Amino acid sequence: MDYTEIKEWLKENLNEERYFHTLGTAQCAKELANKFNLNPEKAYLAGLLHDCAKCFSNEKLLNIIKENLDVQECEMLNYKTLHAPVSAYIAQKEFNINDSEILSAIRWHTLGKLDMTTFEKVIFLADKIEPNTRDKEYSDKIITILNETNGLDKALLVCYKETIKSLVKRDLKICLLTIEIYNKLQDSIQN
């Protein structure tokens, strides 16, 4: 696939830092896909489009959600997660992406969901550890964990721990889904 058109659209619709983050996520997703025997081109495309609606105004995000999407109430608790379902919508409408695996990975890259596929986990993690804008020490820690037995779920658990701590520190609401995923990951790793 020629990514020129997508990258041009992203340059026009994202700020410079978010565009740089997007390129890093796409590359990281491709590398993680190779590591876990997934389709690297699909992962690259999902990484490229995962934040395509991130710089839309909250008003625009809410209008798109209200008019076009079925979004759970808990997803509406934090304005920082509104872009995920809208990004999946834009990927489909603007770029004719109809691959359900790609759309689902984009859709759930912020909150995650129970019983994520390996592909969804890879996109989720790539967003958190890409090298362009994320903390190197944190990314290196996650990459080391990925090499352990059951590393994918262990890495996810660390990400959820950090997310929960960050939300509490910033006095933001926590979606119950986040807690459910955290608890399920704890159980799966301990068993």
Give your account of this protein's structure.
The chain is mainly α. It has one domain (4-190): Hypothetical protein af1432. Helices cover 68% and strands 0% of the residues. Helix 6 (100-107) crosses helix 7 (118-129).
Blueprint (SSEs and pairs):
Blueprint: H1 4-13, H2 16-35, H3 40-49, H4 58-68, H5 83-95, H6 100-107, H7 118-129, H8 136-146, H9 151-169, H10 176-190
Helix pairs in contact: 2-3, 2-7, 3-6, 4-5, 5-6, 6-7, 7-9, 8-9, 9-10
Mass-distribution shape: globular
Q: Flag low-confidence runs.
A: none
Per CATH, what is the topology? Answer: Hypothetical protein af1432
Structural class: mainly alpha
CATH architecture: Orthogonal Bundle
Number of helices: 10
Rg from Cα: 16 Å
Query: Biggest sheet, in brief?
Result: none
The average pLDDT value, as a whole number, equals: 95
CATH structural class? Mainly Alpha
SSE pattern: HHHHHHHHHH
Strand content: under 5%
Number of domains: 1
Say how many strands there are.
0
- C-alpha termini separation: 42 Å
- Provide the CATH superfamily: Hypothetical protein af1432
What is the helix content?
A: 55-70%
